[in-house]
Structure formats: structure tokens, C-alpha cells
Specification:
Structural class: mainly alpha
Radius of gyration: 21 Å
Number of domains: 1
Order of helices and strands: HHH
Shape: elongated
Length: about 80
């Protein structure tokens, strides 16, 4: 999965570089190429990246719940 994400990111960078070149050359399809690149990034790359990063439950330490709030407020009075 990590290798797949790296390859997909390189494809995205190349795609955007080609899009920028086409915009600079004033090609008629340049806006479509850039739009498809953004579509690729938003709907293919980012969901796979988010799934890969948070599939093991690593996000749970960043979620604020009642226990963490009460602990934070108790520690606030000790300073």
C-alpha cells in the first residue's frame, strides 16, 4: 500500500507538471488536464492515503472525549 501511494503521488506530480506546461503553451485541453488531475488527487489519492494512515486506529489519540476534557481541566488548576 505504501509503494502504491508513492507511485500514485509521483503520477499526480507528473500530471500537474504536464498540466502546467500545457497551460503555459496555451493548449486547448490544458484546463481539462488540470481538472482531471485535481479530480484524481481528491477522489482517488486522498481517500487511499487517509485509509492507509488511519486504518490501525492511530487517530484515536487525537479525538477529544469527556475523559480527556476532564483530565485537561483538572491539570489546568494545578499550574
Amino acid at each position: 500500500m505504501k509503494l502504491t501511494l508513492k507511485i500514485m503521488f509521483v503520477i499526480f506530480l507528473v500530471w500537474m507538471a504536464i498540466g502546467i506546461y500545457l497551460i503555459d503553451a496555451e493548449h486547448e485541453k490544458a484546463q481539462i488536464v488540470m481538472g482531471l488531475g485535481v479530480f484524481y488527487f481528491s477522489f482517488l489519492f486522498m481517500p487511499l492515503f487517509i485509509y492507509y494512515r488511519y486504518k490501525d486506529g492511530k487517530y484515536k489519540k487525537y479525538i477529544i472525549n469527556d475523559q480527556k476534557l476532564t483530565q485537561a481541566f483538572k491539570n489546568m488548576g494545578k499550574d
